[in-house]
Each structure stands twice: as C-alpha cells, then as structure tokens.
Design a protein that fits this description.
Keywords: Membrane, Plasmid, Transmembrane, Transmembrane helix. By secondary structure, the protein is mostly helical. 67% of the residues lie in helices and 4% in strands. A two-stranded antiparallel sheet has the order 1-2. The chain has a two-stranded antiparallel sheet with strand order 3-4.
Length: 500
C-alpha cells in the first residue's frame, strides 16, 4: 500500500471548507467528486486499485452516522418510511453474493473483457474471479451505505441547505479546474494540474483532437471531464430556471462553454439528448403563451449564435473547417473508428454473457462494457437489473405530487439533484463500463427518498389539521384521543369489584 501525499492534503482542505459551511461530512462527500483523478493510496494487493478521495468522505459519513447514540431508532425510522431502502439493501446483498458466486460458477465457460493485471488496458479473457469483484463491489456497497446514512441525517433534520451548498461548490470547483486546465495548455504550461492526478489510471490529459486541446480538468481524461460537466450543467440549469439565480446562470454558461470545448463525444451526444426535454419545455411554454424571460434569453442567444456563425462562414468559408472536422471525428464517425468498434464489441460480449448465464449475470466487476444498462444486465443479471430499474424509477419520479407539501427551496434543490442524477445516467449509458451507477445516483436517491418521506408526513398533518412536522403515530393519538382507554374508568372498575 502506497499513501499519496496530495490526497490527504486535498481531503484536509475539503474538510475545512465543509466545517466553515457547518456540514463537513455532507459537503465533503459531494465536493470530493470534483477530484476524479486524486487518490488517497494505491492498493497493490488489489491489482493496483487506487480509491479516490470521495471514498474517504463516504466512509467517514457512514461511520459517523453508525456511531450516533440513537442509530437503531434512526434506522428503524428510515426503513419504516422509505421503501426504496429495502430494494437497495436487497440489491447490495445480491451484488455481494453474485460477485463471489457467479465468477466461480461460470468460470472458464464465458469470454469477457477485464482490466489486464500486468499492463494498463482492457483484454479479453475467460471468466474468472478478479480483483475487480472486490473493488467494484466495495464501491457499490459504499454508495448504498451512503444513501442510508444520508437518509438518516435528512430525516432527522432539514439539511437541504447543506445539499445545495455542496452541489454548488462541486460545480464551481469542477468548472474552475477545467478553466485552469484550458488556460494552462493554451499558455504552453502543459498539464498544470498533474500533481493532483495521483490515481493509478491511464491519464490522457495532454492530447489534442482536430487541433484542439482536450480539456481534462481534475479528471483522468476529456471523456470523464465532459461527462461530469454534463451532470453539473444539468444541476445548475434546473436551479437557474426555478430560482433565476445569477450564480447558477453564470455556472451554467461557463459549464456549457467548457463542455463544448472538451472535445468529448460523450458530452456532445449527452447534451443533444438532454436538450430534447429543454426544447419541448420551451415549445410548450410558447404554445401556451406563458414563455418566461429565461426561455426568451435562451432563444435569443441561440439565434445570435446562428446569425454570428452564418456571418463568419460567409466572410471566411474555411473558418469552421477545424470545428467540422472535430464534430465529424468525435461524433458522426465515432462508431466507425477503432475505439468505437472496440467498445461496440465490449457491449456485444457483455450481452452474450447475459445470455450464456441464463440471465444470472457474471457478477459485478467481472467484465467491462461500454454502456451502463448493458453492464447492469451482464453483471447483475435479470434480478439485479429489475431492482436497479426500480431505484432508477424512484429517482426519475422525483417529488411527483408531493412537491406541494415542501417549501419552494427544497423542491428546487430536489429537482436540480434529480436532473443531475438523470444526466449521470445518460452519460453512463453512453460510456459507462460498470454496473455501479455512481455516487451522484446514490446521493440523489437519498435526497429524493428523504424529501418524499418528509412530504408525506406534512401531507398527513395537513390532511388531519395537525401541526406541521407531526409524526403520523403521534398525529393519530392527537386526532382520536377518545379511542384510548380512559385511566379513570379502569380505577373505578377496580374499586367497584373490591366493594362487591
């Protein structure tokens, strides 16, 4: 085991910021996601795995919640109010059992793609237990435990402000380090964030595509940076549309520019997919005659960009040649490239593994795919896939009809976090290699589930004309005291029997 010096230093800085914001653990888990290539240590016994710093904060959060004085009562409250936690625990148990059993049950019978233990890269090999079964399962279980721990904290006290601050700090750090990376490369300084990249991944940070520098920020490559930018953009955009926040508006604009300059095909395709509901929303507002200023601003900026591009093209026809070449190589012809063909073959082999195991799966961490849904099917099988689909539906549903029972700020934060999680699902569906949906998904599941549980309590209180925040059991006692056995009647009966 080799300890990294930069990793603990970054963790200390995040803890100081979280302590200043009066929520070091919640903010620490979220903000640490900005450092996607900074590891705490390298575990040589597990094939050189290097846990990123977010695992430290997640483990710290779970430990702190587990040491609470009334933890069993808090857990009973969570499991009693949030049905999604039962599905999550069942999925974690299935993932643990499957990661140990399936690679041994189908050993040597199936061909899969795995990380090479001797060199950096993905190789095709016969199914067998690998170190990824331990590490990937550990990350998955840690994410599930983080969901439970966050539900305990969010049900016990209203901490939605800490969630909001954490997400804005994460988006700001990610955008700031991306901007630094871009400026450093164009200034000739190269990869100025190299000291922060302590993970044992292959770092593709000083690469050009079509004459453009590929932005990596604090991530390991441009594709990862583009995926995170897409997720952060979803959060900031939804928050800006709901609150007209100048900070969210500025971050949205900066993240959009960085995303377009990232030269990431995942980011471009993901942006096109996420633009569909935005366009439909603007069209609905226009047809209903209730178009807002923000929507007018978006239409005006798009029109201005189109007119400007057309004017430049008429003045200097070859100006956009590098951009056209970039889009052509990174998006239009990506599937026919060597990398695209290789990733397509990964997905075909993963689907074949699902069929060859009769829908049981090969176990989490046993294979590598290039799409999150395909990875879920091949690793977790039909049973695990159904449970994952259930959790995904709960995230997709969001607050639903319960949003009227929470304050506007809570509803805005929950909607923004939900959009963030859905963007991460879109990004993972385009290039995700593991069945683990990622920490953002688990955080969003906790925020949405806990907010729905609190909203249900408020709905019950409003329905029965009780004080807001009153627990349902206590509410029933306050609403129908006549059903309780009167103390005086028992005493009178006892005295009457004695007299008789």
């Amino acid at each position: 085991m080799q300890i990294s010096f930069v990793g603990p230093l970054v963790c200390a800085g995040i803890l100081l910021v979280g302590y200043y914001c009066r929520a070091p653990l919640i903010i620490g888990v979220i903000v640490s996601l900005a450092f996607g290539a900074t590891a705490l240590m390298t575990l040589s016994s597990l094939g050189g795995s290097s846990p990123l710093i977010y695992t430290f904060f997640a483990a710290l959060l779970v430990t702190a919640v587990a040491l609470r004085r009334q933890i069993w009562r808090d857990l009973g409250n969570v499991f009693g109010k949030i049905r999604a936690i039962w599905v999550l625990c069942s999925l974690m148990l299935y993932a643990i059992v499957g990661a140990w059993l399936f690679p041994r049950l189908f050993a040597g019978q199936i061909s899969v793609f795995v990380q090479s233990p001797t060199r950096r890269g993905i190789v095709e090999a016969s199914l067998a237990p690998v170190s990824g079964n331990i590490t990937q399962t550990g990350y998955f279980v840690l994410g599930g435990l983080t969901t439970i721990a966050l539900c305990v904290l969010l049900l016990h006290e209203d901490r939605i402000d800490a969630i909001r601050r954490g997400f804005f700090l994460w988006c700001g750090l990610h955008a700031g380090m991306g901007l630094l990376d871009l400026i450093g490369k164009h200034a000739g300084a190269g990869d100025i964030l190299r000291p922060m990249r302590t993970a044992s991944y292959a770092m593709l940070t000083e690469v050009t595509e079509g004459g453009f520098w590929r932005i990596a920020g604090a991530q390991s490559e441009a594709s990862a940076f583009g995926g995170v930018s897409l997720v952060c953009l979803a959060f900031c955009y939804v928050y800006w549309r709901n609150t007209k926040s100048r900070l969210a508006q500025a971050l949205s604009a900066l993240l959009l520019v960085l995303l377009l300059l990232s030269t990431s095909s995942t980011a471009y395709v993901g942006l096109a997919i996420l633009s569909i509901p935005v366009a439909l929303s603007i069209l609905h507002s226009f047809l209903s005659g209730r178009i807002e200023k923000g929507e007018i601003l978006i239409i005006a900026l798009l029109a201005l960009a189109a007119v400007t591009a057309l004017s430049i093209a008429l003045y200097k026809e070859e100006f956009f040649a590098p951009f056209v070449h970039l889009i052509d190589s990174m998006v239009l012809n990506k599937a026919s490239s060597a990398s695209g063909q290789e990733r397509l073959y990964w997905n075909i082999k993963s689907l074949q593994a699902f069929v060859d195991t009769s829908g049981l799966g090969v176990g989490i961490g046993s294979s590598r795919a290039s799409s999150w849904p395909i990875a879920v099917a091949s690793q977790l099988g039909l049973v695990g896939g159904l449970m994952m689909a259930t959790l995904s539906f709960m995230v997709f549903r969001g607050m639903g009809s319960l949003k009227r029972y929470v304050d506007p700020e809570t509803n805005t934060v929950v909607s923004s976090v939900r959009a963030c999680a859905l963007a991460s699902v879109v990004s993972g569906s385009l290039a995700g290699g593991s069945s683990d949906p990622g920490m953002i998904f688990f955080i969003a599941l906790a925020v949405i589930s806990a907010s729905r549980a609190r909203a249900r309590s408020e709905r019950y209180a409003a329905k029965h004309d009780l004080p807001l925040g009153q627990p349902p059991f206590a509410a029933r006692l306050l609403k129908a005291p006549e059903k309780l056995p009167p103390v005086g009647r028992a005493t009178s009966t006892l005295e009457a029997s004695r007299g008789a």
